[in-house]
């Protein structure tokens, strides 16, 4: 009886062990299967989330990301997107490409940047003596408080520009052109721009140089190109809006009285910092650069306020034109303004006025 009992117990134990091994194996397989299903589910969720993000992104942003992801940047496509307003999250990178701080061939980017920084250090060494410091310092004191901590950097950039370009030197208003570049390139902390890295300052210097060298006759002795544009502006107003032209002539208001500043700093003083940056998007990506579009921007600007101006005498008109109600413009207003300027260019750029 005892022997039978022991045999029965051993048999039962064997059966239990076999059962446990089968069940254990099954559970392990189920566990692996569950893990696989969970992994696949996560992948599906990720794909769906990515699709939702893509759907929620504006088409312009999707297109821009595709352009920037390529090894060689298509400059025409990049300009086309930036002309209508560059997405803020990519503006710094896009501007650096358009203003030739970064190469189109992305495989050469690291070496390209390194050489530019070395070049900027060399320029600082060669032109270490500051030029036009008094006038530059006065102009920078008038900049907004959020730029306080980067004024020394701005002064250095403007002084180096003047030293390297003696034909023009520093002209009052050039600092206005540097400001949007600083706002895009430099970092911000607690609503103030902070001291830049050497690379950031080199980028700002090279970008300013790229812009100003394309319009250097705006700033050479007696600023001849600006006076040419003032004459062209007067003729265009007469052609586009004869009644406004006649009224301004009757009250003795001429383009020199109000538009010299517009051309001198490409209208940047007339708008808020945000809209100034938006305007700069278009100017740096325009196929003809800064040389042509500003004329038609000025036409569009004065024509926008034609009705108000035709109700004013000399003093009232001058005060109004020097303090235009443009500081609170929305993105839509700026886009409409730029589009109107482009339309005027399409209509009149090939006329005898040009």
Automatic annotation (TrEMBL):
Region (Disordered): 28-50
Superkingdom of origin: Eukaryota
Pfam families referenced in this protein's UniProt entry, alphabetically: RabGAP-TBC
Segments forming a coiled coil: none
Gene3D superfamilies xrefs: putative rabgap domain of human tbc1 domain family member 14 like domains (1.10.8.270), Ypt/Rab-GAP domain of gyp1p, domain 1 (1.10.10.750), Ypt/Rab-GAP domain of gyp1p, domain 3 (1.10.472.80)
GO MF terms held by the record: GTPase activator activity
Location of the Rab-GAP TBC domain: 85-287
PROSITE patterns, sorted: TBC_RABGAP (PS50086)
Alphabetized PANTHER family for the sequence: LD44506P (PTHR22957:SF26), TBC1 DOMAIN FAMILY MEMBER GTPASE-ACTIVATING PROTEIN (PTHR22957)
Entry protein name: Tbc domain containing protein
Organism: Entamoeba histolytica
Lineage, uppermost ranks: Eukaryota, Amoebozoa, Evosea, Archamoebae, Mastigamoebida
